[in-house]
Each structure stands twice: as structure tokens, then as C-alpha cells.
Design brief:
Elements: H1 4-13, E1 18-24, E2 30-36, H2 37-43, E3 46-49, H3 65-68, E4 74-79, E5 85-86, E6 94-102, H4 113-126, E7 130-143, H5 171-175, H6 178-190, E8 195-200, E9 206-211, H7 216-236, E10 239-242, E11 256-263, H8 280-292, H9 297-300, H10 306-309, E12 322-324, E13 331-333, E14 343-345, H11 354-371, H12 394-402, H13 405-411, H14 413-431, H15 436-442
Parallel strand pairs: 1-6, 12-13
Antiparallel strand pairs: 1-2, 3-4, 4-6, 5-6, 7-9, 7-10, 7-11, 8-9, 11-14, 13-14
Amino acid sequence: MSTPSAIESFLTQHRIHEVECVIPDMTGIARGKILPRDLFLAAGEMRIPKSVLLNTVNGQQPDNGPFVGDTDPDMVCIPDGSTARVVPWAAESVAVVIHDCQEWDGSPVQISPRGVLRRVLKLYEARGWTPVVAPEMEFYLVARQQNPHEPLQPPLGRTGKPEAGRQSYSIDAVNDFDPFLLELSNFCQQHQLGVETLIHEAGPGQLEINFSHGNALDLADRVFLFKRTVRETALRHGIFATFMAKPMEQEPGSAMHIHQSILDAEGNNLFSLPDGSASPHFSQCIAGLQTYIPQLMPMFAPYVNSYRRLAPFMSAPINVRWGHDNRTCGIRIPKSNPANRRVENRVPGVDVNPYLAMAATLTCCYLGLTEGLQPSAATTDSAWNVSHELPRHLEDAIAAMRACGPVREVLGDGFVDAFCAVKELEYATYNRVISSWEREHLLLLV
């Protein structure tokens, strides 16, 4: 559904009155305009300042002249009709359409996250390859609170009591949030998000929802819309939903694990040979992840809080070891038949921009394939005791990404510099904050 007539048919079929015209910025926040149906169709495009893409999570912008020009010009945003969906929680008939960002000459905007993912996918397409991905989304439900200085608390479920202790895979703990989950399931179905499995994770009020596998751009769109759907549903039930990577000090963090494989031009799994054994491409993809995940950490762990999740013995990797069905490794190989052979990247937190996380993990694999890299030996025991193999702070991660030539070649200098500038500003803003720990332990003792 990519033609203007197809979009018009969709709007007519669903009796749409307004259209949310959105683009994802660097943080994955939906930016754009809400237009009446007729104006949306008449315009055929949305114009918005290119600098909007450079907003930090707290609404600031770095010096944007080097990235957008000194005059703060508009860009042209073209609706992607395949993304048109009804907004199920809206009081009236409202649609949402994700747009692609273009320069005035029709070329892609280099700093657009959706454009960056398209750029990576074109590199695969040029070699006759089609990536297949499937994300797993973890998130917390928490009680509403207005004071950011107070720790988050689990919400009250149907029992009227907060969860106590760890409830991994508990059916009863899931059922305690049935009213929320039933409406969320209904919204996801109406929103055509293709979610599959629901799991209760280890933390109190921590849930995981898995998506069916498919095209990377489509999955990034669905994750982008899913986050909005979860937050909106939670608000309707008097609670918050958070995609922070580490919202509670003593509880596990939340990840967005990404399963990935590649199909060749004939639709066969590139990771498997005709006899069912693993192909050299499989090893090269693993090696690419091992080599380049540490260089792309700002796209897998984009905030200061992200690195609190990546801690020993907290169900999150601090390494880039790989192993078969080994959840202590940053790179896990799930058990599967040859047609479904795949790699699971367990490093990304759920706080990522899904377009950039998809682009980053596919970049790692692409570089492994094109450079013919070879992985380490598989880890057959626990990797929990492996020392840190990832950057431990956002500042170090930004420096590593800036300096990585192969990453720059794949993602583009313009994007790498702009993205790192956004992350540096966020880090500098955070670094000005005096924490409660500092006041408690330094105020009268040093």
C-alpha cells in the first residue's frame, strides 16, 4: 500500500478524520504533525525542520549547523503508505502514517534513523541478501509517581498487592495484570503489530513480548509503534509503562534481544549449507558481532542508564562471547533446525531507537561477512566471570564509535557525527546533575 490512491482508500475505508504524520528522531520519539484527512491527502508530504531529528531525550539540540546547515532548513517527509494504521485508543477515527525524510532533491536525509536503516538494507540488497529479524521486548509496569527523586515501585494488580520476589515465567503473575494485558492485546491486534508470545520476566511487573520474525524495516516500525501502544494502554489503567534499561536498582534491566538471520537470493538461509551444517557465513556474522558490537554501543546502549543494566550476574551481558543456547553470552545461538539457524544479539537494551539498533546489529553482521572475519571459539560454560568486553560508560562508547572507520563507511560520516553529538550533549547534561548518592555520602564526610 505505497501509492497515494492506496492511502486514500485506507483512510476512506476506516473513515479517518485526522492523520498523525510521524517520523522517529534520534531517540526514537515520534515527531511530526497532526493533519485533517483532506489536508493530508492534498499536501502529499509533510515539511518539518531537519533539526528536529537532532533533539536529545530532554529536548535540547547540539550545534546543528554542521549537520543541517546554518539556515535551519526544512526537509520533505514522504508518507510510507505501508505503515498506515488506525490508532486504536483515539477517541475519534485517527490514523498514523510513518514518513521517510528526504532532501529537496529527493535524496535521503543522512541523519534520519529510518533512512540509516534503509541505507544498511540496501547494502544487503546489493549482494542479493535479505536480513530477517525478530525482536524481544522487555518492559516494566510501575505505579504512577510524580517525584523523580523517589524510587519506582511495582503497581498494584488485581489482588490489590504489589508483586513480591522474583516471578519469572509465572502465569499467575501475568494474570494479575489481565485488564491491562487484554486491552494491550486488542490494541496490538488493531494496530497490526504482529506480537506473539507474552512472558513474565524476573523483575516485579516486568513483562516480555516477542514479535514474529520478518523484514527489518517493518519490525523497526512495529517496535516504534508498540512502545507508544504500551505506554498509552498503561495510562488508561492508571499505571506507567517504562522502557528504561534499568528502572529499579535491585532488579534486572530490560533488553531488546534481536534474533537475526539472512536469506539468499533463492530464499535459503545463508547461515546453513545444503547438508544442514553451519556455513562460513554463519561464523563470519558471529565474528562481525564480536568485533563491532563494542564499536556501536551508543546505538545498543544509548543513555547513561543503559550501562547500569550491563552488569555482572544481572542477566545482561558484559561480554561478546558466543555459545550455543548459552544465555550468559552476549551472542547466543538458539537451538533450531538448519532453515531457522540464527544469531541472537543479547546486548541491546529496550531503551534503544529500534531503527538504529536494527541498523547497528545488521552492520556488525555485514562487516563480518564482507571482511571475512573469524570468531573466537564457542563458550561452552558460563561467561558470567568474563571481564568487561564492552565500554562501561557512555562517554567511552561515543569515543569508540566516532573512531571506527568501517562503521563510518557503512552508516555515513554525517550520521555518525550527528548521532554522537546528540549523545555527547545528553551525557554532558546528565553530568551536571548532583545525585542523591553524592549528597548522602559526600556532603558532610569529605
